[in-house]
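Hey,
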Amino acid sequence: MRERIASAIIASFIVFAALPGTLLAPTVLASTSLTQEPSLAKEPRTKNQFPSTPFFIASLPAAKPAAKPQKKIGADGRESLGVKTTASHVYVVDNASNTELYGLRENEQVPLASITKLMTARVFRSSGVPWDKVVTMSGVVSDGGTAYFANNDQVTVRDLWRTMLVGSSNTAALTLARATGLSPDDFVAEMNANAAGLGMKDTHFTEPTGLDEKNVSTSYDISLLARADFNDPEIASTVAVPYFDLVKVAGARQRVVSTDKLLGSFITKAPYTMLGGKTGFINESGYNIVISVTRADASPITVVILGAASNDLRFQEAKSVAYWTFENFIWPSHRLTAATR
């Protein structure tokens, strides 16, 4: 009897073995009784309703919310508290029911870095600029060490779009903003108006690239933006591309590789389905990433990792947090709802 009790206690303090395709092994925090930690899975704070657009299907619940995931409790009445991360801010939400599944400083403002480009993409999508329009490049800025463009290059809007979301190009983001015909101030105003429409109450944008540390948001707010954007087929299909060949009008070709190193990892393979992801980094923010992912026995979740200690760790921690969530919650429907996009 004593041996069985001891085994149960040890099991509640388990450290996961390395996951397939991981960089480091995720460490699960010690378990505790449910009565000690009643707020891990919280009620949604608000009923955010996203604006209706021709390309957007809202992911938050309407009149009849989906059933909420239920936290798994061990036979000894204990539950796992989460995954140990270097990230300073973490948030996980069940997309279907709008239920918070895990939160760490989810309401504190921090710089978004290039996650900003998800809002740039959203505003650009509403502009109606044709994909085959040819743009002449000017005002080329730093793209984090990879030079995709030179002044006077001619590129289609479609390839600028891909370079912004796949390669996280700052020049592409600025050029797409200019291509809308809006002034810089007006484009930023549209970004902030869209943020307000999504219920992103603690978010403020100053420019479309994410280079400015004054572009700030919270992990909670970023989850709202990601859920909206990854339901747009144009955005979701683009961020799913591991690389593409940028072809300029003059004929020059250049391989653009995705900044999202989760593409091709175990979390993009059955029984998982990756619905979207976007990275971000500036010195002031640390390493950021937001992903939406689902598994065959669950509905989609969105995971936000902000301020991880390194490039590799942000990807490892995103995978670990997603895996922990799917392993520690039960979805009553047990249905794959990836078709929501």
